[in-house]
Amino acid sequence: METKTIHDVLKKHESSDFVRKSIDQIQKNRLSKINARGLSGSSISFLSAQILQFSGDPVLVLLDDKEEAAYLVNELENMFSKDEVLFLPDSYRRPYEIEKTDNANVVLRTEVLNTLNGAKKPRITVTYSQGIFEKVVTRKSLTTNTLRISEGDSVDIEFLNELLFSYEFKRVDFVTEPGEFSIRGGIVDIFSFSEEKPCRISLFGDEVESVRKFDIDSQLSVEKVKTFTIVPNLENKFIAEKRESFFEYISDKTIIVSKNLSIVQSSIHRNFGLAEEAFEKLSSEISHATPNELFLDENEFKQSLERFPVIEFSLNSYFKNSTEIELHQKPQPSFNKQFDLLAEELNRLKEEGFTNYLFCSGEKQVQRFNDIFEDLGKEVNFVPVIGSIHRGFIDEDLKISCFTDHEIFERYHKYHLRNSFAKKEAITLKELTSLQIGDYVTHIDHGVGKFGGLVKIDVMGKKQEAIKLVYQNNDILYVSIHSLHKIAKFSGKDGKEPKISRLGSNAWKNLKEKTKRKVKEVAFDLIKLYAKRKTQRGFQFGPDGYLQNELEASFIYEDTPDQLKATNDVKADMESERSMDRLVCGDVGFGKTEVAIRAAFKAAVNGKQTAVLVPTTILAFQHFQTFSERLKDMPVKVEYLNRFRSTKKKNEIIENLKTGKIDIVIGTHQLVSKNVNYKDLGLLIVDEEHKFGVSVKDKLKTLRSNVDTLTLTATPIPRTLQFSLMAARDLSVIKTPPPNRQPIETRLIGFNEEQIRDAIFYELQRGGQVFFIHNRIDTLKEVSGMLQRLIPDAKIAIGHGQMNGDDLERNILDFMEGKYDILVSTTIVENGLDVPNANTIIIDQAQNFGLADLHQMRGRVGRSNRKAFCLLIAPPLSALTNEARKRLQAIEQFSDLGSGFNIAMKDLEIRGAGNLLGAEQSGFIAEIGFDTYQKILNEAIEELKETDFKDLFQGQNPDDKIYVSDVQIDTDIQLLIPDDYVNNVEERLALYTDLTQVENNDELKIFEENLIDRFGEYPEEVANLLESMKLKWMAKELGFERIVLKNSKMTAYFIARPQSGYYQTRQFQHILEVLQENPRLASFKQKDAKSKDESETLMLKFEDVKTVQTAISKLKMLEIEKAENLTKSQSI
Predict the structure, then answer these.
(1) Count of Cβ atoms closer than 10 Å to residue 407 Cβ
(2) Is 625 helix (H, G, I), strand (E, B) or coil?
(3) What residues pair up with 708 in beta bridges, in sequence order?
(4) Domains in the chain, ordered, with CATH?
(5) Which of 290, 452, 744, 1078 is the most buried (most CB within 10 A)?
(6) Is 88 in contact with 134 (CB distance < 8 Å)?
(7) What would the pLDDT profile of 460-481 be if each residue is shown by its tens digit?
């Protein structure tokens, strides 16, 4: 079946009688007003596109609100190139709140004005009532304040500096936001308000050598351009200057297209009223422009429309004398996920001569429709279209039907606006892990100290850069930039301050050894259990059948790749003859429960029972609702056991489990008690195992030994730990958020009763419920009383940890069942709590929470297809600490589950490691820091593989093992990044850190290119630094732990452990052979042990080594030649 694109459907619209008639009339009378009744779905985007193509005139589409406009922009961008579609958003949240201007929207507005100012070809501009409501600068002002820079131009750097200051641009080290610029030697970075990305100008003297756009996060160039336009912030700079309505700005030839001009007019009227109110409240000491100077009122709106041709799609025309045209369109019918009805409708339309287009998000979705129709045994005629439109429709005039997959599956369809790209994350992972003076750090060999900055030290008269660490009694340790990998920012549990170590004492060494011992015990048990299960036979489930496919096809979200992989992993485990023990880990709302439902259903189809064990009564009820809803059309019986069920009901369930009448049972620890017996238990699903007590865990161990087990956790497991645990647990990680999950609109507000009332009132009006988080038990009742005063009709429940357990659970269950409208609680509310009907959360004193907590609390709303809101109440940003301000801005900006999620995860991973490995391990993490803990855990597991579990991991060739994990380089050659090349200290440190993570020549080449891109050609010291990386890798391959390069001599130290397997390898034998043949290359020396703790060390001494390049060429001679490798493999 051949798939089509949205362009093919657009071509079908070329024969639209309506478009032809409308354009003919406009060409006869330029001020024609046309109203077409009967428009449906996304047909407006196809018709607007045809009006642009057919008339050859610019088009302005004016819609009711931003969401509608955003969907239309997305549809049009699929039909035209991006630069032909312009989007004019509003720039601030409320009139006169200039400081709350959204920079990303200012960029989009300026881009529209700038593009239209120099437009050669007609374009289509989309806006909505608030966008048109704000007036814009005149064309004359824009032209006067625009500077264009092109390749080959002559530009004086001083003039550019002064001009940017006059445009109120801010000079910074690195550009991340519109209105910033930086000058580094001959490289000038500028973020103009008229461009989506900032620009990097390379100057050779005064000549512009190249102009490149670059990415704000990586700071690297992404594309070369010929010309770049610099425009200041038009919303701020020209407040005092004359403004005009957008209707004055656009060409007289523009055709205006709208759905309902009356709605737009009433919105303008309402906004103008708000502007007048806001103007009244302004301080009279500052002269402000009046509302009429800044905003459009309804009279001006009416008069403006008279000057343009207008095509409206409304039931009641805005104009009295408009020409009426009838369209014969209908919306896509609702099929309630009944695919037989869909098949009948498509076949009926086909018989009536319609072409049926089915819009699908991808090839996978097309395949899914084919499978569903095949399962139904129906021949269905449709044309798949890869692409998306927001709403489907049937057009009887054109004889086409356009149906959308997301409406058929009842999924939320998300729009993407470019403003999300223009924003810099308020806080990034790099910033979070970057070091500030005074931060705690751990050095793997010396323990916890404080970071004292980057300093220059003198090594034999040559300058080197080193990191200063301060320990107890102000003792100082200088760490070479080559040993940066030994240092990590200290991250313990919940941000507690660590104890600073004493240099030279054994305390740190003993703590590490104690930790390693304990870690080994935990790892030993884990690996032992895992090895035992690998040899144990379990029940072998059969492959998927028709029912399984039908259940999976009815999932309303599209599976993410991770979710699909986790599902397939679980099924493969179930179908194998070994018993399963798999851990599925993923954030709240990432679809773990769906994986569990599919596994439970697979067990039921195979005649086996499933027990789902959860830590709380509330979660039991919640999972029961989710499982029942998903499996309601399937032949399975789901029940739940918790202490709120009557004794009679409990006994009935226990009896039905014994006789096999129940397929899936969900409950708390009662499920593993003595009096509960199963007829044929085949699958055990455990949710958040770390929350259960020891006795339940022990019972689980006995149950597990012969039943397939699936464990779910929402606390993420760090990647490094995942690799270590591969040896001890089957693990599936779901780390991609579901596509098209509706972003949660997050707003930061001061404590304002009016705004709180509006937010709650709006949610209750649409039949929803509200969480109000207030984390002080003593004032919870006061807050509840205030809310009752603001909204007298609301039913309010209270929840906190000091309440009687039964009362708390009863209140929460009643809230879940809709008996209360508002739940006022502390953060005690279960973080897995899922109330699909609660879609507004208000968090009081938000500045007191960590990022991870804010992320998890906000995750309680936005779980259904409804738009969700999160209000963060906090003091003004200026009154907060820098950290709190960054946190709140970050959580406000990453409203969908994207990048912000990574940052919150960093915080949660530390908890995850503790949860997974037990409480005692959390104590060690708190003492030695997370990074050091991970290194020790990895070492412990490697050692166990070599000793206790040698048989389990045997078969590794000694030549394939890595014996040296890290090479230390000491030298008097200058290897550093000089201040006059990279002036910013933090950036130098970040570059050193990045360099230590480079692992091969290809990565080094990229690092080098990026360096030149950002800072220009580098000096000799940097060249030496880059070369030293190659020396390090080569030494590691050859088996050297340390290289000393001083006084034109080089000493290379072999591995210090004589019992190491390295001395049996082919590489070591080869070095001996080379030195026998070339005794003048280097001489063997031995360094004797000074104490019984030390071992004697072998080393090689090389003479006449003045440069890093010479050192590399000497070591190259010791490598096993490729030819030799070839001979070896042939002889095998």
Answers:
(1) 20
(2) helix
(3) 683
(4) 6-140+239-326 (3.40.50.11180), 147-230 (3.30.2060.10), 521-732 (3.40.50.300), 744-896 (3.40.50.300), 959-978+1019-1131 (3.90.1150)
(5) 744
(6) no
(7) 777 888 889 999 999 999 988 8
pLDDT at 199: 94
Q: What is the C-alpha to C-alpha distance for residues 923 and 919, in angstroms, rounded to an integer?
A: 7
The residue behind tokens 């958003």 is 89
Question: Which tokens belong to 1044?
Answer: 């000393």
Please give the pLDDT value at position 932: 76
DSSP string, 1090-1129: SSTTS--EEEEEES---SHHHHHHHHHTTSPPHHHHHHHH
In this prediction, residue 424 carries a pLDDT of 40
DSSP codes, 173-229: SS--STTEEEEETTEEEE--TT-SS-EEEEEETTEEEEEEEE-TTT--EEEEESEEE
- Nearest CA-CA partner of 317 in 26, 32, 70, 20: 32
SS3 of residue 678 by DSSP: coil
* Residue 126, phi then psi, degrees to nearest 5: -115, 130
Q: Which amino acid is at 481?
A: I
Q: Which amino acid is residue 268, in one-letter code?
A: I
Query: What six digits make up the tokens of 628?
Result: 């029942």
Sign of CA dihedral 114, 118, 124, 129: positive
User: What is the rounded CA–CA span in Å between residue 313 and residue 324?
Assistant: 10
Q: Which two tokens stand for residue 370?
A: 């084919």
For residue 444, CA distances in Å to 485, 487, 963 come to 9, 7, 18
CA-based radius of gyration for the chain: 34
- Rounded CA-CA distance 558/409 in Å is 9
Instruction: Quote the CA–CA distance of 652 and 656 in Å, as a whole number.
Output: 6
Instruction: Evaluate whether 441 touches 488 at the Cβ level (below 8 Å).
Output: yes
Exposed / middle / buried, residue 582 (Cβ in 10 Å: 0-12, 13-18, 19+): buried
The answer to whether the beta carbons of residues 429 and 443 sit under 8 Å apart is no
Q: Which residue has the tokens 């931003």?
A: 66
- Spans of the chain, pLDDT less than 50: 238, 419-429, 720, 898-900, 1122-1132
Which residue reads 């109120």 in tokens?
168
Q: DSSP character for 334?
A: P
Instruction: Say if residues 832 and 619 touch (Cβ distance below 8 Å).
Output: yes
Of 230, 165, 161, 156, the closest CA to residue 193 belongs to: 230
In angstroms, rounded to a whole number, what is the distance separating the alpha carbons of residues 360 and 56? 31
Is residue 581 within 8 A of residue 730, CB to CB? The reply is: yes
The secondary structure element, H or E, covering residue 703 is helix 694-704
Say if residues 642 and 668 touch (Cβ distance below 8 Å).
Answer: yes
Q: For residues 563, 565, 568 and 574, what is the CA-based torsion angle, rounded to 10 degrees?
A: -90
Checking 24-33 for CB contacts under 8 A at 24+ apart, the result is 25/323, 26/55, 26/255, 26/309, 27/55, 30/309, 31/306, 31/307, 31/308, 31/309, 32/309, 32/310, 32/323, 33/309, 33/310, 33/312, 33/317, 33/318, 33/319, 33/321, 33/322, 33/323
Tokens of 1066: 């082919």
Q: Are 475 and 481 a contacting pair, CB within 8 Å?
A: no
pTM of the predicted structure, to 2 decimals: 0.68
**Other Cβ atoms closer than 10 A to 699:** 17
Which residues does 508 contact at the CB level (< 8 Å), separation at least 6?
446, 447, 448, 501
Q: In sequence order, which ranges of 485-553 are alpha helices (DSSP H)?
A: 507-535, 546-553
The one-character DSSP state at 867 is -
CA atoms within 13 A on the CB side of 377: 1
* Contacts (Cβ under 8 Å, ≥6 apart) of 527: 727, 728, 941, 944, 949, 952
